Amino acid sequence: MPLHINTPLIESRPLSAIAKSTIWLKLDALQPCGSFKLRGVGHACEIHHARGAKGFISSSGGNAGLAVAYAGRQLGIPVTVVVPETTTERAKELLAMEGAKVIVHGSSWQEANQLALTLTTSSDAFIHPFDDPLLWSGHATLIDEVAELGQKPDVVVLSVGGGGLLCGVVEGLRRNGWQDIPVIAVETEGAASFHAAIMAGKPVEIEGISSVATSLGAKRVCDQAFECSTTHHVKSVTVTDQDALDACQRFLLDHRVLVEPACGAALALAYIPHALDRYDNVLLVVCGGATATFAQIQQWSAKK
Ligand SMILES: *Cc1c(COP(=O)(O)O)cnc(C)c1O
């Protein structure tokens, strides 16, 4: 039994009416820890567990850390998550609820990550949030589930942070013989490291992250994500923070599910008129995210 669940695939009447194409939602917001991350992280943790790992270490104060904490608790392996001082109380609370040991260190993710790496002994496994082939093959199960239902879409729409989800979805399309299906990779303007890589013709580090979509906040995408764009039809699209926030609020009303702005970025394509006009059947990956409260989304929205 994998640690993630097989999530519902539903046709969205409200989004289909706005987008003027049939929108299929893959509801990974319903994973037990609130995001698709459990697919890849759960797979990686199971393999490290089988190899005899005695502890799991993560440096993510976001959904990757939550997925590691969840996987560790399920497998009976202690988890340590090192997070920077900027991590919200909400995120620390969720990690603690999963029974992880939370260490707050440094003013940025880089510093937290440094400490996490030095804490990783030879008997522990360090779980990267996006740059690991084990994660990608776990994320690919999202496409396996759609293929099992025989619901072949014309396009897949998803969000990109460090690119792990993109790598996994492309792997899933390939292993199901769906390599002809294009992918639209969406980011917010203030976190557009994939877009920067496409422009530069190679992965590059962007100066900083200025978006509320913190789960998309990787300054540089992994090499494999860029590689995917050279071997698969991947279109890069950016939206504003306000588009992503509006999408979160409208999606809550339409489907009664609260997601992070990181997920709102992909949802925004269905809410922006004509963005998906060319496609009859759209698979929209509702990647989820547990770290933003509704009050926080309203606050961000009021400030824009
Ligand atoms: C991690 C995450 C992303 C981005 O995934 P990558 O694999 O880093 O590209 C998008 N949305 C949510 C909610 C996430 O947790």
From TrEMBL:
Cofactor requirement: pyridoxal 5'-phosphate
Protein name per UniProt: L-serine ammonia-lyase
Taxonomic classification: Bacteria, Pseudomonadati, Pseudomonadota, Gammaproteobacteria, Pseudomonadales
Keywords: Lyase, Pyridoxal phosphate
Protein family membership: Belongs to the ACC deaminase/D-cysteine desulfhydrase family.
Catalytic activity: L-serine = pyruvate + NH4(+)
Record InterPro entries: ACCD_DCysDesulf, Ser/Thr_Dehydratase, TrpB-like_PALP, TrpB-like_PALP_sf
Organism of this sequence: Pseudomonas petrae
Pfam families assigned: PALP
Residues covered by the Tryptophan synthase beta chain-like PALP domain: 3-288
Enzyme Commission designation: 4.3.1.17
Lineage: superkingdom: Bacteria
Keyword NADP listed: no
Keyword Phosphoprotein attached: no
